[in-house]
Amino acid sequence: MGGVQRALAELEPGARGSVSEVVGGEVPAVARRLADLGFVPGAVVEVVRRAPLRDPVVYRVKDYEVCLRRAQAACVYVVEGQP
Amino acid sequence: MSAGCHDTGVGAGADLVQVPRVALVGSPNAGKTSVFNGLTGLRARTGNYPGVTVSRFVGSCRVGGQRYVVEDLPGLYGLEPVSPDERITVDVLDGRLEGVPRPDAVLIVVDATTLRRSLGCVAQVLGRGLPACVVVTFTDELARRQGRLDVEALGQALGVPVVAVVGHRGYGVSELRELMGGWRAWTAPALAPPTDPAERDAWVESVLAFADYRAPERHRVTRRVDDVLLHPVWGTLVFFAVMVLFFQTVFTLAAPLQDGVESLFARLAELVAERVGPAWLAGLLGDALIGGVGGVLVFVPQIVLLFLLLALLEGVGYMARAAFVMDRVMARFGLEGRAFVALLSSFACAVPGIMATRTLPSARDRLATMMAAPLMTCSARLPVYVLLIGLLVEPSRKVGPFGAQGLVMFGLYLLGAVSALLAAWVFKRIGDRRGQPVPFYMELPPYRLPAPRAVLVAMWSSARAFLRKCSTVIVGTAVVLWLLLNLPLQSTAHLRAAGVDTGDPVAVSAYSVDHSYAAGLGRAVAPVFEPLGFDWRVNIGVLSAQGARETFVATLGQVAAAEDPEDPARALREMTYSDGPRAGEPVFTAPTVAALLVYFVYALQCMATVAVLRRETGTWRWPVIAFSYLTALAWVMAWLARTVTVLAGG
Questions:
Q1: Closest approach of chain B CAs to the CA of A55, in angstroms?
Q2: CB–CB of B117 and A33 under 8 A?
Q3: Tens digit of pLDDT for each residue in B232-270?
Q4: DSSP 3-state of B227
Q5: CATH number of the domain at A5-80, please?
Q6: pTM, whole model, 2 decimals?
Q7: Which of its termini does chain A have fewer beta carbons within 10 Å around, N or C?
Q8: In this complex, do B235 and A52 lie within 8 Å of one another by their Cβ atoms?
């Protein structure tokens, strides 16, 4: 518990963490949409796999799989660890 | 509000004055469409929301004696819209969209396997205060993957009616209809769900706990298949293999069926020639209708097969993976992975391709993809290419192990695809100068065996658009063209005066065609196409192909019919300019054929595409822009192709 906060985009496939913060950058709609997709503080996220060209990346959150591009995954901060 | 309605629920006397409107809301993969089809039985009207690029699906269903209007609203993940489609859904729910009445009740469709995420959206919709019922789909899959859900308890926790429906099996649809009949008596939540995201999250967890929810196990098959299909090396190989197989299947499997259609129409034409009395009627039926329509219907097996494969790949879940694999490549051109799927469909026909852009959440991506889709080599170009390549390259010529004809064909496909991507890039750049970008996200649903019915329905709705084009645009063009080519009628006296041997039908026919209204039209536009090397007969072909590209083949066939209707290619090869500075020289030289081929790569010669652009964008602006830019581009590129070929000594 209590690891370092990192952007989801920096995590390797197989890594898990719980969302600590979602920032929208210049576009507030991005943070809202990420929340609607299940990226809310406390949610457990697992990096499932990267696309053959390394972007986008499939994440597992709230029991389903969704892929995000690096730009969106950079808006989600997680604390790594096995909750 | 309920004036004229004396009893609530399923009244025996149909209330025709006020038809209740029920709207379906839910996320894009929740199974909304199959619930909608289950309720309305495929009798949906499709249209557009006023003034926007968002398609609208409305159907009706009857419960007891009461008719209901059912509307399938665009999918969404939350009520704070990030795309125009989502804005429509929110505006309709709030009764803020002009011309679209606020629904009387909503059916919130949720996928049981993604309930933990979906309930957030349910909470937001319930907060709007409309009478609501929750429709839980994919409960069969939830059970198969060791998940659990007490549907009744979910209803108690939410405070609204809940019904499980497995749309593609028809399970639960009758319960849903019964429930709809009593919509006025639906319970409402005692307390509106919380609006604060953190509180809402806690609310979702408490609802799930009350409903004894257990999330499904990960889909093992999906994971294993994805280990291969999305592997950096194997995934890429499989991707290319699927694409190659895709085209191989279409061309090889369809060939025998196409031969069947061809011989059927040849037989019909023979019958007409034998049985129909007046020569003009036989000509109209045989050359114009049977020749024109038959020449196009030959491609029906191929197109139906192409649509079937697309529907299968989509239904299984591979299209989402293809979009995932190609996203990075498409990002280079300012687009996203789903645009790749739309462009891939455009290889069959731009009409379903343009319709497939509905899956793109970003309006700007949608427009850019729509502007590019007509450049993908659709199957209507194929007969034109086959004819023209036959005039350009000997069948026996080889380049290395490959046939030269096949290479030219491949080159044309490549030219179309690269041009489409560049066009999309330009349009996206223009569009990006204003407004916010839409974030990219895409669900990767587990692999599913699609219900055969769903695949067939998807295939048929695409094929129907093509068949409609055949029966309207192409028949119309063929008849008008036949009239233009055969009028005015030349009197025997006039023919004699012109020095034509009236005993020789070929000479009479050649003279009539050369002095027809069509010839006049072809010569009138000659200054435009003269730099490209087209003579009046080619001009007529190009003009007639304006409605539908395939018509070009039928037209040149009709023009050459005087010499040899069965083998227009041979007649064409020997065709010479009948007048002008090049009189006597052969028409189909390498530079002219190259210019023609390139013209067909770029020009938007398809009324069906123009119509679908109008329908999908809701304005004439975009079809006009597409038509103008593509026609201008076609002329310039054709001129370049001609010039280059001449310089290369062709």
A1: 6
A2: no
A3: 888 888 888 887 777 677 667 777 887 888 788 878 878
A4: helix
A5: 2.30.30.90
A6: 0.80
A7: N
A8: yes
